[in-house]
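Saturday, quiet lab. Running sequence design on the structure tokens for the scaffold JK sent over.
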């Protein structure tokens, strides 16, 4: 984490109101599942970074749960499995019962998906994963591969029917059109996802917008909305147009079930907790003012490179993970 990010987080921490310590993290319904999850979720990728000591990673996870963050994000491929292993250790001693646990798999075939589900269950030390999502739906043919005969959806449904997972969703960061294609393909096969995850932030509103094209469909169908990259992998605050807390508040102001944000230090976690505790619904005028700040720099996706480059596409770098 850069010095500027640490400084910003420390300022946010020092600005806590005296009564904020007693404020709770709000919860929201997860689509039509009947579950309620924290409005802020803890991202899993940063927790497995090699330069973050395991003990500190566990401390962050447990501190988040103790503060009221119930939604935990992870993926089979994060940091060669290190993120899941650390989370599994953190969820001992009664913490698992207090968390809604999500992870993702890359496999597009039944065989690859089934193997990755078992890997994730073992690493997470979990009998049940609350939500399993198909990771990196970033190609137009991903939906067809998953729903083909012998595709990954068969492994997911089998695991759900066996009680190993509870809900099924998908995630991607590339294009709203691909998300819509995934939803359409599922409908063609008589299947409805429980959740969908996508970038939702003050830059997305201006460029290749998931907010404008996908979000209304999810809300209409009662599919849980998982917002990710509220800070654009920390690139958005670097634009010098909006603060991290403004970014988090904007994403929380959308009809999201949870806004997932990466935290690799206690300072960054405190920043996220502060944003959740101080969130109040924004007026339309406040939204317009915030979006006006980012309109000029959001063009062409300069601060959303996960949409415009392959730098964030782990399955492009490792196609063998798809099966």
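Result came back. Writing it out in full:
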């Amino acid at each position: 984490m850069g010095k500027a990010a640490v400084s910003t987080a420390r300022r946010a921490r020092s600005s806590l109101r005296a009564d904020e310590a007693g404020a709770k993290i709000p919860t929201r319904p997860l689509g039509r599942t009947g579950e309620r999850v924290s409005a802020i979720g803890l991202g899993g990728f940063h927790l497995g970074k090699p330069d973050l000591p395991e003990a500190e990673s566990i401390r962050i996870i447990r501190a988040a749960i103790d503060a009221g963050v119930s939604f935990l994000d992870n993926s089979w491929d994060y940091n060669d499995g290190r993120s899941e292993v650390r989370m599994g250790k953190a969820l001992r001693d009664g913490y698992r019962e207090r968390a809604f646990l999500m992870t993702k798999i890359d496999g597009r075939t039944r065989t690859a998906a089934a193997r990755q589900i078992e890997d994730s269950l073992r690493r997470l030390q979990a009998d049940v994963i609350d939500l399993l999502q198909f990771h990196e739906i970033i190609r137009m043919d991903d939906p067809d591969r998953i729903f083909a005969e012998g595709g990954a959806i068969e492994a997911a449904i089998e695991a759900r029917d066996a009680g190993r997972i509870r809900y099924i969703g998908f995630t991607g960061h590339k294009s709203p059109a691909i998300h819509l294609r995934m939803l359409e393909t599922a409908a063609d096969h008589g299947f409805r996802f429980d959740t969908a995850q996508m970038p939702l932030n003050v830059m997305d509103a201006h460029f290749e917008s998931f907010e404008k094209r996908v979000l209304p469909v999810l809300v209409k169908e009662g599919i849980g909305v998982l917002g990710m990259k509220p800070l654009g992998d920390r690139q958005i605050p670097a634009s010098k147009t909006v603060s991290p807390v403004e970014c988090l508040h904007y994403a929380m102001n959308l009809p999201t079930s949870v806004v997932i944000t990466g935290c690799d230090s206690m300072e960054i976690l405190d920043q996220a907790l502060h944003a959740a505790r101080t969130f109040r619904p924004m007026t339309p005028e406040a939204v317009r003012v915030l979006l006006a700040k980012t309109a000029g720099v959001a063009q062409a996706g300069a601060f959303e490179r996960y949409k415009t480059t392959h730098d964030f596409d782990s399955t492009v770098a490792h196609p063998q993970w798809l099966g």
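Notes for JK: The longest helix spans residues 284-298. The chain has a mean pLDDT of 93. Ask whether to fix the surface positions before the next round.
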